[in-house]
Amino acid sequence: MRLTFIGKDPDSNPGGSPTVYRTDRGSWIVQGWIVTDPEALALMDIPAGETSVEIPDRMIQFFGLGDR
Asked: Which region ranges are annotated with the description Disordered (predicted)?
């Protein structure tokens, strides 16, 4: 898989999250904060081998940039 960096949260610390990448497989990879809230996790049906991450609204600006 090849990754193309799309954007990093401008309000994050220099080594932190979140970050958005575009793959060469027509998909996205989002680096974010691990969701650990038990109530939120109970509402999701997350299969083995998957997880969920949280990103702030300000990251939405980067979606679609990989299709230029």
From this structure: 1-20
Q: Which residues contact 9 (CB under 8 A, 6 or more apart)?
A: 16, 17, 18, 19, 55, 56, 58, 59
* 18: preceding bond cis by omega (within 30 degrees): yes
Structural domain boundaries of the chain? 1-44
Contact 28, 20 (CB under 8 A): yes
Strand ranges across the sheet with 19-23:
3-8, 19-23, 28-31
Band (pLDDT 50/70/90 cuts) for residue 62 is confident
Structure tokens belonging to residue 62: 């980067």
With CA atoms as reference, report the closest residue to 8 among 56, 68, 67: 56
Q: Smallest Cα–Cα separation from 18: which of 67, 63, 66?
A: 63
